[in-house]
Protein: CRISPR-associated endonuclease Cas9
Amino acid sequence: MTKNILGLDVGVSSIGWALINEDIENPKNNKIIKLGVRVNPLTVDEQINFEKGKPITTNAGRTLARGARRNLQRFKLRRFHLIDILQKNNILKQADLLAEVGKNSTFQTQEIRAKSAKQKVELSELARIFLLINKKRGYKSSRKAKNEDEGQIIDGMFIAKKLYDEKLTPGEYSYQLLKESKKQLPDFYRSDLQSEFDKIWNFQKQFYPENFSDNLYKELQGKNKNATWKTLEIPFSLVGIKQTGTLQEKKLEKYSWRSDAVKKQLDYEKLAVVFQEINSNIYNSSGYLGAISDRSKELYFNNQTVGEYLYNQIKENPHTKLKNQVFYRQDYLDEFEKIWETQSKYHTTLTKELKEEIRDIIIFYQRKLKSQKGLISICEFENREIEIKENGKIKKKTVGLKVAPKSSPLFQEFKIWQILNNLQFQNIESKEIFPIDLDFKESIFNEVNIKGRISAKAVLDLLGYSGKEWNPNFKDIEGNNTNENLYNAYLKIIADEEFELPKEFKLNGDDDLYVSKIACSASKIKDFVKEKFSEIGINTSILDFNPELEGKDFEKQASYQFWHLLYSYEGDDSQSGNEKLYELLEKKFGFKKEHSKILSNIGFPLDYGNLSTKAMRKIIPHLKAGLSFAKKSKEDNILSATAMAGYNHSNSYTKEDLAKRVLKEKLEVFPKNSLRNPVVEKILNQMINLVNEAVEEYGTIDEVRIELARELKKNAEERANMTSEIGKATLLHQKYAEILKKEFDIPVPSRNDIIRYKLYLELANNGYKDLYTDVQIKREELFTNKYDIDHIIPQSRFFDDSFSNKVLVPRGANLKKANQTAFDYLENEDKQKLEKFLNIIKNLYDKGEITKAKYEKLQKKGSDIGEGFIERDLRDTQYIAKKAKEILFGITHSVISTSGKITDKLREDWNLVNTMKELNLDKYKKLGLTETLLNSKGEEKERIIDWSKRNDHRHHAMDALTVAFTTHNHIQYLNYLNARKDEDHKQHKVISNIENLITKVFEKKNGAKQRRFIEPINNFRVDAKKHLDEILISHKAKNKVVTKNINKIKKKGSVVAKTELTPRGQLHKETIYGSSKFLKTKDEKISGKFDLETINKVQNEKYKNALLQRLREFGEDSKKAFTGKNVISKNPIYLDEEKTLQIPESVTLAWYEMIYTIRKPVNPDNFKDYKNIDKVTDEKIRAVLTDRLRKFNGNSKEAFSDLEKNPIWLNKSKGIAIKTVTITGMSNVEALHYKKDHLGKEILDKKGDRMPVDFVSTGNNHHAAIYEDAKGNLQERVVSFYEAVERVNQGLSVVNKDYNAGLGWKFLFTMKQNEMFLFPSEDFNPKEIDLYDEKNLKLIAKNLFRVQKFGELSKSGFWFRHHLETSVDVKKELRNYSYLDFYSKDFMKTIVKVRLNHLGKIVQVGEY
Structure:
C-alpha cells in the first residue's frame, strides 16, 4: 500500500515542500516525486515586528496617518458648517476676511478673543473667534482609552481655593482633617503639591545648607516614593523610622511631620518620609491629565477664559508656544458661554436657539467611538458555517457566539480550574508523581481566586508539603486578576473609612494595601471585607460569584453585573467623565462617590479569550470535578471536560472520527483582515494556496507532515524573548569566535568550537577543573582530542542535544562513562567522588554559572530519565500551529507534526547536512570564492567564503524532504529512547521493534560504531541532490495596485454601501520637499544639437545672437546650420564686419534648473562623508562643513556630534552657527499643494499658472513597460506606484499597452518586482528550448533570475537576483552568477519572461 505524503517546512517568509510516495509495506519502493519552495517575502519591518511579538502590518503607519487625515477632514467639515450657519444668520458677510491683515496683526484674533469675554466685538470678529475655538475644543475624557501614563483628573477647585485663602499647604490641610476625624483626604493639584515641596525645601535648607543642594533638588523631581528614598538614602544617611500604633495613628503621625515641616526644623529621617509622601502625591497626579488640571485651576483662580489665559502669555512673550497647552473641554465650553452671554447683550441675532445649534451640533459635537465588536472572535465551540450572498457571490461565513473578555469573572475562574487540573507533585525521593486531589484543588482555588498569582512555594506551604520532599511541575499559578484588582480597591475603601485592619494581615502602612501581600488566608480577607461592607452599607453580594447558575440567573447575579458595569462603562460628558458611573454604583451597589472614584481607576485588560460565556458555563462544572480541559494525548482513555460538555476539542478526534470526515476538494483562503495578525494571515494563505495547487497537480494527498518554524510555535511574548535571547547569543558567539581566531589560531571557528569554549568558561569558578575527574583542563589542550563534549544524559537514552545537556570532560572519563548518566557514573566510581561532584555543581548553580536545567540533569539518575521530551516539543499550543493543522485536516485525513530537533537529527543521520554546500561549491570554486582551512582537529575542510546554507532558498525544500520521510515511528522512537534498555518499561517491546526496523549500527571513519536511522530510500542523498538541482523557486510577485473595499455608511436609518479603491502601498514617501532654482553651467561644443532651445541657453549674449542668426539662415535646421561644411571650424561665425572676432568652437551654456530640497540637521547620521556634504545647496556652508570634516580626518561622528558644546561657526563674530542646512533631495516628485497667500487665495506666476509647492517623492516604482518603436529599437518606460494608482482610479489598465501607439510603438512585456526572467548563457538560449519540458529544469534553474529593483535605466539600472539566492553581496565576482545589473537596453532583446505557480512550475512563457 502506497501513500502520497506532503512534507511542509513552514517558516515566517517561506514554505518548503516535498511530495513523496511512501510504500508502508516495502520502504525500498519509497520515491521522491517533487520538491519546491514558495517565498512569501515580508518587509524587513514586518518580519522584525513579528519576531519581536508585535502584530504590526506594513501599513500600520499609513493607518495612523489616515486617522490623522480623517480628524483633519472632520475639523474642516465642522468649519464648513460653522461658516455656513454664520453666513445664514448674517454674522459673517461674504466680503469679511477670516485672517489677520496688516502690520503687527499676527495675534489679532487672539487679542479679540480675550477681549470678547468682557467687551463688545463686531459680528465679523465674533465669527473669527468661533472659528478659532473650533480649531481646539479641549480634552474630553474617554474611560476606555485611559492609560496609566496620563495620570489622573483632579477635580478639587474648592480645596485649592481653601488652600489659597487660608495660606495652607496640602499637608497642613490634610493634618487638620485627620485631627477632626475626617475619613477622606482630598486629591490635590500638582501645582499645589509642588509648591508645598518647594516651601518645605526652602525652609529646611536654612538648617541643612550643605545637603540641600540644587543638584539634589533636581534629582528628586519626578521621583516616586521608593525612588525618593533611594535618592535621599546616602545624602541624609538614612536608616529608616519604625512607626508604631494603628494604621490611622501612623498616618496621623506622618501628616503631623508634613505639617510641621514648613514651620520648624525636622531631622533627616522625618524629612525623608515627608518628601516621600509629597513626591508620591505628585507622581500620582502627574502626567498629561495632571497638567490639564493645573491649567484649569489657574483659569479658576485668575477668573480667566482660555482666550484670556493664552493672550496674557503672548503679551509677555510673543514667541511663547501655545501648541501643547491643552485644557478641559469644559473650560472651552465655559469660555463659549461667557463670550456668548457678553456679546448677546450687543447683538440681537445671538439667540438661545442659535447658541445651542452652534455649540451642541457644530463646534462641540463629539461622535461616539466606532464599535470594535465586529473584531471579536467567534467561539471555537459555539459556531456554525452559513452561506451568504455578497456582491452577487455566494460566500461561506462562520457565525456564532462571541468570545468572552479575559477580565470576566467567569473566564478568570475557568482559567484557574484549567491550570489546577494540570498540577502535579513529584516525590523527590521515590520519584512518584501524584496529581492533586479535589480538596487540595479547592484550597488552592480559594487562595488564587482572591489573591491572584501565587508561587509554587506558597502552594506547598498551603498544602502542608515540604519543598525538600516534593517537586511541583509549576513555578507559580496565575490567579484571578479581576478579583485581585477589585480586592485591592475594596481594602483601600475600607481604610479610607478608617476601619482598622486586623493585625493578622501584617501590613506596614496604608501604601501596602495589596491583597497579594496579606499573610492570612483568602477566606479571612473575604469575611473581613464582607463584614465592613455590610457596616458601610455596600451590597455584599458583589463578593460572591457562582459560575454554575442556570439561565438568566447567571447574568442577574450582583457580582457579574458589578464587573460588567465597571468593564463596559465608556464615560460621559462630565468633566471627570465618570459622574454617571458614580451615580450607578451608588444606586445599584451602595458605593459613595469617594468609593466610586477608587473603583473607576481600576483598569481591566481589553483582551479576549477563545471561548464564549455559554461554552465556559457548560464546561466549568466538569473542570471543577477534576477533568482535564482536553485529552492529554490521543491514547488517553479518560473523557475530557470538553467532551463531557458535548464539545469535540481538536485533540479529541479519534482515528475513526478523522477517517469519517468529509474532505474538501479545495481549501478556502482567508479573506483579507479576517485574522487579527496580518503576518499569520499571509503565512496561512500561502500554505493554503500551495496545498491547493499540489492537490490539483498531483492528486489526493493521503497525509501531511508539517514542521513549523520555532517563531510560529511561540506566542508574542515568547517570540519577543526568543528574539532578544538570540540577539544576545549571536553577539556573544561573535565575540567568542574572535577570541578563538586570535588566541587559539582557529581561522574559522565552527559551532562546536564555540560550544567547547563556552563549556570551558562555565568551569571558571571551579578553577577550570572538569566535573567528572576534578582535574584542571589545560587551556592550550582545549581543542585537542584529549577532551570531549559529553552528553550528561546520553543521547542514546534521551534525545536532548541542548547546551544544558553538555559538559566538557577528558576523553578517558567520557569513554568510561559510556551509556550512563553523569550521576550514575560517579556513583559507581566512588561515593566520595559523587559527594564532591554534588557540592561542586551546587556551588556553580548557586553562583549562576550553570542553569537550573543543567543542574537538574547533572543530578539525574538513569532510573529517573523521563519520556515525552519530543512529545512536549510537538504540542501545538499556539494559535498558528493549531490553525494550520485545523486547515490541513480539511483536505487530508492525517496531519502529523514534527519538530526542528527531529529534522536536525534525521538530516544528520541521512547525510544531508552538507548537501547545500556541495550543490554550490563548484560555482563558487570557479569564482575563486572558496578556501581550504584546517579545523580545530587539524583536518582540511574546503568552505565557501562568507556563505551558509541559508543563502540558498533550497534549504527549505531539503528540510521539507526530511519532514516528509519522518514517520510516526521516528517520533515515537526518539520520544522513548530510554525504553530500549529498560525491559520493565511499558514501551520497551514497541521501541525495540521500531529500533530494528528503522535504525542500523554503522561504522565511522575512526572505527567507532554508531547507531543511525536508515535512509528512507536507496541512494537517498544522490536522489535528493538531483531533485534539489531542478527546483525553481516560486516568489510571490507584487502585482496588485489597489484593493476594492466596500465601506458601509449609516445614513438616515439605512446602510449605504460604497466601493472604495485602497492603494496597496504608500503613494509617496513622508518627506516633504521644497523647491529652488539653481544656476547650472556647462561648456558645450557647437554641433547639430544646437537647436533654438539650446542656443537660448548660451551665456554670452553676442554669441547667442550670432548663433540664432546662423540658425535662421538655414530655416531653423540645426544640422544644416552647424554640421558638414557649416561646422564652425570650416565655416566660422564672425562677430564683427572686419571678421577679426569669431565665435569659439565651444561655448558656455547656462540655465536655471528646479531642484527639490529639504532641511536636515547637521549630525553624523545625515553627513557621514564628503559625498553627503556635496548635496548642501549653499556653497559657503558646504565649504565650512567640508573644512570641519577635514579637521577631524573624515570622522563624521567626532566632527558633527555635540554641536552645542562645539558649534560650527558660519560667522563667529555675529554668533551665527550652522545647525540645519538645505540639501538637494529627489528629482522624481509630485506637488501636494499650490501656493496660496494667508487669505487662502492662489498665487499665480507671470504666465498666470498656479505655482506648485510642497513636493513629495512618488516612492517605489511599480513596473517598467518595455516597447519596440517603429524602427525596431527597444524603449523602456518606468511607471511609479503613484502613477499606477492614478491609472486605476481613472478606470484605465495599470499597464499602458497603447503608449505611443500613434508613433508605431508596440508593447512587448513588463517587469515587476519578483517577476521571473530567463537569461541566455553559453549553453542555454531560452528562445530555443521547450521551457515546459521538465527534462530542461536543471538548465533552466541555472539561468533563472527574478527582478530585484529598477529605476531610470542609465542611472539606477535594472537589477536581477538569481532565484536561489536569499541575499546577495554586491561583489564583482558574483556578477552574472548571483546577480545581474544592466544600464542599457541591449539585454532586453534576448531575455524571456516566465510565470511560475506556487509549486515553482512554469505555467506561462512571455507576458501575462
